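Obj.: predict assembly geometry.
Materials: sequence records (below).
Method: joint structure prediction, all chains together.
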Amino acid sequence: MSNYIVKAKEVTKTFGRRLIFEGISFYHKGNGIFGVSGPNGSGKSTLIKIVAGLLSPSRGKIEHKNQNKDIIPEKLHNHIGFVSPYLVLYEEFSAWENLNYFARIRGIRFEKERVESLLEHFLLFNRKDDLLKTYSSGMKQRMKFIFALMHNPELLILDEPTSNLDVEGKNSVYRIIREEGENNIVIIASNESTDLDLCSDVIHLDKYKN
Amino acid sequence: MKSKSFSLFLKDYHSELRTRYAINSLAMFIIVAISIIMFAVGQEKVSESLTGGLFWVVIFFTAMSGLSRAFVSEEERGTSLTLQLLSAPSTVFSGKLIFNIILVFCMNTIIALLYSALFETFIIRNFSLFILSFVLGNFGLAISSTIIAAIIAKAGAKGTLYPVLSFPILLPLILTSVQLTLFALDGTSIEQAKYELAIVVSYDVIMLTVSYLLFDFIWKD
Amino acid sequence: MFKITWKIVLFLLIAFVSVAGIAFPIVENPRAWYEFPLIPGLEENAKIIFFHVPTAWLTVVAFLVSTVYSFKYLRRKNLDDDAKAYSSAQLGMVFCILATVTGAVWAKFAWGSFWSWDPRQTSIFALLLIYGALFALRSSIESEEKRATLSSVYSLIAFVTVPFFIFIMPRIMKGLHPGSADDTNAGPVVNFKMNSSMFLIFFLSLIGFTILYFWMWRLSYKSIIYRDKLDKKLIRG
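Observations (raw structure tokens):
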């Protein structure tokens, strides 16, 4: 089990003068699978972007701690794995080149064995030298999971993880979420009941709108 | 830190080799701009001070045609989010800056070579001053156009706004660089051009600092 | 009560300055309090100082206020600060155009041509370009938060380039403007060729126009903020 803590204190977000949600607090430590749900436009993606440090909250605070030490915002990206429908990888490179560059830009060692086992798990090993632009949308979605997991993040954040996937793809994703949930913290934003069934605790965002 | 932004630069370089987003348009633009000037000039003999000015006209517009690609290409393809998840804002800015510096140096060297080949009056009498002002001017051009490119990319406005926003920011640099180029053509000594060189150095330093400070605000939406 | 009093005072002040600035006679040896001294080479043209200098001064003040509020916006992300920065930039643009036009008209009579790339003309031209670029940037962005952030960043970047003009211009072109270092025949006007009555009108004009600016600015940003809140139904009209 990891020693990671993610804590939200009274997080409020407004876009311009429009309130998205107000006063969200939670505290997750070590491991577990947690969900965020709410109707379209309720701010699911916004909340998890705030948790991932991609957006700053209008009020309130998000704290990340590893081994009881605060993580500075400049270093946060290497502790987080993030999957989102808006995520696009470099289509002019092959899967292997993409992952290789990602490791170097992150400034971490390229762990060949881990990447190979992830490629095997998501059934992409045979296609690893093909350019991403030749992939189908389901393959791209599975590729995003490898992007999110290759650096062993302590916090995995998934936005609609099973969109674009067939049954087989969904099962491999569920398997990896359960595996990750044993050791790390997983946060899922989704409205699909099968996704939310995995979660031990779900935040319903419609309750945080005044 | 350094190696991270250098890896980002390598990624961009590799991607540029595959897609040829910037290089092709830059190369064609240089040819188009210089030939327009050649046609406009015709058989007239161009005075020395005019070639110095025209030299920077071509540099400015060529820069405006290609340097925004560094950020616009990421934003267009939707890969900005990927970069945000991979690295700190300062790494992204350094990586893009390295890419643009190299692009500016290649492009301006080609323009300088073409100028000295095609214009009889473009004769550099003080070579070391020319190189010095050329290098300093290129850095300033790359820094300012990189930060403005970041703004343009986030604004979602593609081509037209880029020169409009860049011109006031680049104006002090261009005015001083034109002056320095004229000095180099005249054969003025470096000693006499000290004041202008100091202006360009402080421009580079100030713009670099301000860009690093403000890039966070542009990059995180 | 105070609300109306200061508006009346401002009205009287500006009315007095306008009449005095235009109508008070210029004579060789001023004796009465309302007579201005003759400045060789400028003559009647000298009266521009009561109207041109305040507009140029307010161009700078408005630009500074706009930059300060842009900075505040980036720190606190409060859209009210953006409205303040934007309305100040709008007013700055108006004063900038006024200063450029009055200056150019004056230059036609004093220097013989409307535009001669004098250092101050070039600097105010650069300010016009910056304001113009800022408005072009603002109008191209839909999302109001993004618009506020990007235009704040841009105006801060533009702000640091402005001082360069002060150092560069005198080296590149020689100055014609009264008060500049190369000016030999007509100036420095402000230092010693104005008498006390001219000073008085000049400073009254400066004060009057400055109050006018702050009043206009307050009206302008308040109306922007109210309109914005009405659009979003945050307050009822």
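Conclusions so far: Residues 102 and 204 of chain C are 19 Å apart (CA to CA).
To do: check interface contacts against the pulldown list.
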